[in-house]
Amino acid sequence: MIFWSFSFIWFKIANETYLPLTIVFIRLVIAVVLLTIFLFLTGGFVKIKKADRKYFFVLALFEPFFYFLGESFGLTYVSATVGSVIISTIPVIAALGAWIFYREKLRIINYAGIILSFIGVIIFILNKDGAISFNIKGLVLLLLAVLSAVGFNLTLNRLVGTYSPVFIVTVQNIIGVTLFLPLFLFADLLQFINTPFAAKSIIPIIELSVFASCGAFILFAYSIQKIGVSRANVFTNSIPIFTAVFSFFILGDKLTLQNIAGMAIVITGLFMSQINGRQKKADEGLALTSKTA
Predict the structure, then answer these.
(1) Once rounded to an integer, what is the mean pLDDT over residues 241-249?
(2) Residues 252, 280: contact at Cβ < 8 Å?
(3) What's the rounded Cα separation, in Å, for the pair 173 and 60?
(4) Residue (of 19, 7, 2) closest to 213 by Cα position
(5) If you count DSSP H runs as helices and E runs as strands, how many of each does the chain have, helices first?
(6) How many angstroms separate the CA atoms of 249 and 5, rounded?
(7) Cα gap 92→230, rounded to integer Å
C-alpha cells in the first residue's frame, strides 16, 4: 500500500514533464521487461490455451488499458490525494463482488469496518461546507478506472486456476503495451522526442515500474493468499492516508484537522475489518484486485 500510495505522487512529478500516455507506456515497457526476466529466471512461462486467448485480451483491455487511461488522465485534473481516495473505493465494490460471485463470507463487524473505513474516506475529501470538492472530469475518469478494476477481476477468475498471477500480469502488460503503442505513437511521440531528458521525471517512472507495477503486485498477491480478498483489499483504504502524508512532505499539499479525523476513522474501520472470524478461503480470482499493473 505504501508503494501504491507513492505511485500517485510519482505520477504527479513525472507529469510535470511528460504526458500521461508517455508515462503509462514507458512504465508498462519497463514492467514487462522486469517481469519477463523474473519469469525467465524462475521458469514461469507456460503455453496459453487457445480458448483462453480471448480472456487474456479482455483482461488487458480492462487493465492496464482502460484502467490506466482513467487513472492517468484523471490525475491530471485532481490532486494525488483525491485521486487515491477515489481509487480506494475499489475494496467496497470488491468485497461486495467477493460475496456475490465467490461466496466469501466475513463477520458482520468486518463488513462494518469496511463501511466505516469508506465513510472515513468520504470525510477526508469533504470541504468545510460539507460538499465534496473535485473536478468532474477527473471524477469521471477515475470512476472509469474503478469500473475497469471490477471488470478486470470478473475476467481474471477464468484464468487464475490455470496460470500463475505473475504470468497473468506479465501477459496482460505485454498486451497492454501493444494497445498503448498506437496511442503513444500518434499522440505523444512527437512531444516525447522534443522534450529534453529530465532525470527528475524519468526516475519517478522507473519507480512506478519497479515498486508499483512489480513489487506491490507481488506483495499484494501473497497477502491475498494469506488473509483473503475482502480483508486484504480493505488495506487499500490506507492509500489515501499514506498519499496525503507523503504529499504533505513531498508535494507541499495541505493536511487539515478534518483530513486527520478522516484518517483516524479509516484506521478504525481497518482494524474492525481485520477482527478474526471464520472465513472461507479466498478465491484467487480477485488476487489482483486494485492496482495490478
Answers:
(1) 87
(2) no
(3) 7
(4) 7
(5) 15, 0
(6) 13
(7) 8
Structural contact between residues 83 and 146, judged by C-beta atoms closer than 8 angstroms: no
Cell of 55: 480472456
Instruction: Calculate the average pLDDT of the chain.
Output: 83
Which residue shows C-alpha cell 505522487?
Answer: 9
Strand intervals (E) in the chain: none
For residue 101, the Cα-to-chain-centroid distance in whole angstroms is 21
Range 9-13 contact pairs with CB under 8 angstroms and sequence separation of 24 or more:
9/80, 9/204, 9/243, 9/246, 9/247, 9/250, 9/251, 10/204, 10/205, 10/207, 10/208, 10/212, 11/72, 11/75, 11/80, 11/204, 11/208, 12/75, 12/80, 12/251, 13/200, 13/201, 13/204, 13/251
pTM, two decimal places = 0.80
**Residue reference for cell 519517478:** 204
Residue 60 phi, psi (nearest 5): -70, -30
For residues 114 and 269, the answer to whether their CB atoms sit within 8 Å is yes
Residues β-bridged to residue 132: 126
Residue 203: CB atoms within 10 A of its CB come to: 13
HEC-encoded secondary structure of 85-153 = HHHCCHHHHHHHHHHHHHCCCCCHHHHHHHHHHHHHHHHHHECCCCCECCCHHHHHHHHHHHHHHHHHH
Q: If we measure between CA atoms, which residue out of 111, 85, 116, 81 comes closest to residue 98?
A: 111
- For residue range 209-238, list pLDDT tens digits in order: 999 988 887 787 777 767 766 677 778 778
Query: Rg of the chain over CA atoms, in angstroms?
Result: 19
| Integer Cα distance of 248 and 58 in angstroms | 38
Predicted confidence band of residue 261 (pLDDT cuts 50, 70, 90): confident
**3-state percent helix, strand, coil for the chain, nearest multiple of 5:** 75, 0, 25
**Ranges 2-6, 235-239, 261-265, most confident:** 2-6
The pLDDT of residue 91: 66
